[in-house]
Amino acid sequence: MPEWVAYFDAAKHAGARAVSARDLNSIDQPSRASLHFTHALALRKPGFDRVRVMDRIGLAAALFDEGEPEQAAAAAQQALTEAVRINSTLMTSRLNTLLDAARPYRTTAVHEVHTRTADLAAARPTTIAA
Hints:
This protein has helices spanning about 10-25, 35-45, 50-65, 70-85, 90-100, 110-120. By secondary structure, the chain is mainly alpha-helical. The mean pLDDT is about 85. It is globular and about 50 Å long. The protein has 6 helices and no strands. It has one domain: Alpha Horseshoe (Serine Threonine Protein Phosphatase 5, Tetratricopeptide repeat). Helix 2 runs antiparallel to helix 3 (about 50-65).
């Protein structure tokens, strides 16, 4: 295998499929992106903290999109607990995706997720510094 593609393992593939499935949901092509994110998380090896956090955020957003707000809120809380250690523009983008996915729901648990997510996103970079 060429060295330049050695990083692309089964976990990376599963994560890419999960993001694609989530994106398809946004254009009315139903899929269970949460299953792909769960699979990616199961395959992730230690040491990939940023990607693992983004998968957890993606899982929460997918669950909101799939109409599972209570499961989504629980997944989001776990993701946000881990996300405080990560400072990444891409993660900020995923946090904004989570905010969009949670917007239709009006429960106490979702409100807590929305508040934590908005605070964390506001404290993170949104562009790459020159």
